[in-house]
Amino acid sequence: MSKQYRELANCIRFLSIDAVQKAKSGHPGMPMGMADVATVLFKDFLKFNPKNPNWINRDRFVLSAGHGSMLLYSLLYLTGYKSISLEDIKNFRQLNSICAGHPEYHPNSGIETTTGPLGQGISNAVGLALAEEILKKKVGKKIINHKTYVLVGDGCLMEGISHEALSLAGHLKLKNIILLFDNNSISIDGPTNLAVSDDHKKRFDSYGWNFLSVNGHNQKEIFKALKKAQKSNKPIAISCKTTIGYGSPNKGGKASSHGSPLGEDEIKLVRKKLNWKHNPFEIPKNLFDTWRKIGEKAYQNAKKHEARYKYNYSNNSTTKSFYNLIHKAKEDYLKDLKPLATRKSSEMFLDIASTLPNLIGGSADLAGSNNTKTKKHKIIKPGDFSGNYIHYGVREHAMCGIMNGLSLHSNLIPYGGTFLIFSDYCKPSMRLAAMMKQRVIYIFTHDSIGLGEDGPTHQPIEQLTSLRSIPNLNVFRPADMIETFECWQLALESKNTPSVIALTRQSVNPVRKKDISKNTSSVGAYEILRTGNNIKITILSSGSETSLACDVSHKLATENIYSKVVSMPCQELFDQQSKNYKKEILNETDLIVSIEASETGYWKKYTGQNGLNFGINNFGKSAPYKEIYNHFNLNVESIVNKIKKKL
Ligand SMILES: Cc1ncc(C[n+]2csc(CCOP(=O)(O)OP(=O)(O)O)c2C)c(N)n1
């Protein structure tokens, strides 16, 4: 490294060392090791705008190795982002500091995504790069044409999601993604050869990536590789051989520098070795000015681009004509009211919605089962991003991580399908979508024992409960065609909340047979049937069991026991309603029962301990679905008998 680059990199090193030391926790090793690579990237290549971090055509920089968060905070502070001050860095890891333990996405801050769970950032980067290609096709390469850089460690590359995401990126020929591999051969337990002996080059080769190797402390090599990467005809990985904790005489190259403060004594030795004569958190004026000039230059370039090319691509998912078409489809359905699987209703919705320019569909190899792809969809193919449908392959986890990236880029609305049971393969990314307030839509079909013969491995039991327990995630389970349309609309309109739409494989009888003037699903739960004036029972239900609940209610009425049925397509939205509305729904009768072909625990918050919960608290069965319902006593006779006993 030339003296100037080395000293610029040392600014990152010492801010990171000092912040971790002050916080008494954190990860100094990675920022110390990757400071040289990051300096060359930010000084000589990255397109960014510290004064308008949301500039549409910025290069995206994703820190997949999120534990090294101080690297990112140092860079944002040094280049002049308003989002991060020196005070914030001194408050690293403290309550409400933007400099959180791991990077947490903030719009317009330079922190492009939340990382920390290793490997997620790789899939986000693939989504960001894919979004760039899709939007470039729509608005032209003068307006959008940027790179996505992702910094990954040995850990990220060990994670399963990295294999899925890298493989898909290679297949699609996403040539604008540049992966920087912090190849230091150290993770927490020690040298990586304790657990892995992959040949990285062969791995990337086989995915269809280009691969370069450099000494990650050699400015010329880093520069040359990054230069080459700008023109790569495929996605490209640059393996940067680095020393973790670079500059630390006793901890450099060792796992001991990975995840704890170096300690005062060792820090003194690092200062001596790197010839850094400044106090903690002190950046000498000449270096500080040089860093700020790097930021200023980037800003000037961005400003020129912004002035010349206006990005004017708004999301019009809520246009009147769209709503008119939706309304007309509902009216048509009400004319013949035939039983229909809700996955089929969802397809009918998508048949209309597939013309929305920002909606990007997909499925993890279950397009025909999830009914996520209509005849109007156009497939996104390797090197051809003019379509609006992604075949993610059998890669559920990456699909969800990629959807986070698609959404984070700017204004695309991704939806992706798989079976509800495989939401367990999606959850780490779903959780991050919820945390980052992203409008990502999950189409989870085959949502109960109602899928039948595929048996217990495919029948969700605890999945709805576990999804409902994720904060800021709406879990919709519509009962019929009308509710499916309503829930889809709500999901599209939920700008800051991801949505699950759980759908049936089997046909369901319609329960909403009239009154479609209002989107009643929007309050989460509403009365759908009342059999008499003096009711004794409130029956709560969702999805395919709502028509069963109505049958139960009618049967009880034949014995002069009156009840109301409450359709509850979304518990989260119901929980947000006024106290009065909730009372109206829940406080009318002493006895409240719930019916849902799923784990029952979560319903107890509505039914109380004295209520009855009809559901399944064991694994499912392989058989024709009606037999399975009977096996679990989910039928009119059995439920009516139990309710009568309770009265
Ligand atoms: C999914 C996940 N599993 C485990 C961890 C805990 N963890 C944080 S860093 C790390 C080791 C990472 O090693 P590497 O990527 O080589 O980083 P380096 O040691 O170079 O900083 C682990 C296991 C995590 N953050 N995410």
Oligomer: single chain
Please tally the β strands and state the result. Answer: 20
Principal-axis shape: elongated
Helix content: 40-55%
- Calculate Rg over CA atoms: 28 Å
What structural category do the secondary elements indicate?
alpha/beta
Average pLDDT taken over every residue: 97
Would you identify the regions where 5 or more consecutive residues have pLDDT less than 50? none
Q: How far is the N terminus from the C terminus?
A: 82 Å
Task: List the SSEs and their pairings.
Blueprint: H1 3-23, H2 29-44, E1 60-63, H3 69-78, H4 86-90, H5 120-139, E2 148-153, H6 154-158, H7 160-172, E3 177-183, E4 186-187, E5 190-191, H8 200-207, E6 210-215, H9 219-230, E7 236-241, H10 264-273, H11 285-308, H12 320-336, E8 340-341, H13 342-353, E9 359-363, H14 367-370, E10 389-391, H15 396-409, E11 413-419, H16 427-435, E12 441-445, H17 463-468, E13 474-476, H18 481-493, E14 499-502, E15 507-508, E16 526-530, E17 537-541, H19 545-558, E18 563-567, H20 571-575, H21 579-586, E19 591-595, H22 604-607, E20 612-614, H23 625-631, H24 636-646
Parallel strand pairs: 1-2, 2-3, 3-7, 6-7, 9-10, 9-11, 11-12, 12-14, 13-14, 17-18, 17-19, 19-20
Antiparallel strand pairs: 4-5, 8-15, 16-18
Helix pairs in contact: 1-2, 1-3, 1-11, 2-3, 2-9, 5-7, 5-15, 7-15, 12-13, 13-18, 15-16, 19-24
